[in-house]
């Protein structure tokens, strides 16, 4: 975790647990639900995106910062989601994110949305690094090192 984050920012960004997995709490709002009061299936993608963004922030990088400094951003290349049980209006969820692979221009994560320890949705996401023109690009070395470090710590613990 970056030393420059204050306590409020760290709470907004979630935290890394003892196994180096990122955890982000989320509340289900009315805007997240369908007419029946259940989370609309596509909104799990938004929850997972938020969690990946905050995990990156806790490693010391931001999407806007990487675009400004290195001219790169991340694009979802592939996603597979299993919907296990519905989340409901006003539920408090936790999204757990774990790095599963890191390559030269991509990385993969496993993500789970949970309520009270019960899995609601599970995703496998492959992300590609792209430049401003939308072409594949190498992961910036410091980002790649941070992701490899997390992945190694997650497998070890």
TrEMBL record:
Record EC number? 3.1.2.-
Alphabetized, the UniProt keywords read: Hydrolase
Question: Pfam families, from UniProt?
Answer: 4HBT_2
Asked if Hydrolase is a keyword of the record, the answer is yes
Keyword presence, Cell inner membrane: no
Q: What class of enzyme is it?
A: hydrolase
Source domain of life is: Bacteria
One MF term from GO for this chain? Answer: hydrolase activity
What the record says about family reads: Belongs to the 4-hydroxybenzoyl-CoA thioesterase family.
User: Which protein, by its recorded name, is this?
Assistant: Acyl-CoA thioester hydrolase
């Amino acid at each position: 975790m970056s030393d420059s984050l204050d306590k409020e920012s760290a709470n907004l960004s979630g935290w890394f647990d003892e196994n180096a997995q990122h955890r982000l709490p989320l509340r289900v709002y009315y805007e997240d639900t369908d007419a029946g009061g259940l989370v609309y299936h596509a909104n799990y993608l938004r929850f997972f995106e938020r969690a990946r963004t905050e995990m990156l922030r806790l490693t010391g990088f931001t999407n806007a910062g990487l675009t400004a400094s290195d001219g790169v951003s991340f694009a979802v290349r592939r996603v597979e989601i299993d919907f296990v049980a519905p989340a409901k209006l006003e539920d408090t969820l936790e999204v757990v994110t774990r790095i599963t692979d890191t390559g030269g221009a991509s990385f993969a994560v496993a993500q789970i949305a949970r309520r009270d320890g019960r899995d609601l949705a599970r995703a496998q996401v492959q992300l590609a690094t792209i430049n401003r023109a939308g072409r594949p690009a190498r992961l910036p070395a410091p980002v790649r090192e941070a992701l490899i470090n997390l992945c190694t710590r997650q497998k070890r613990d």
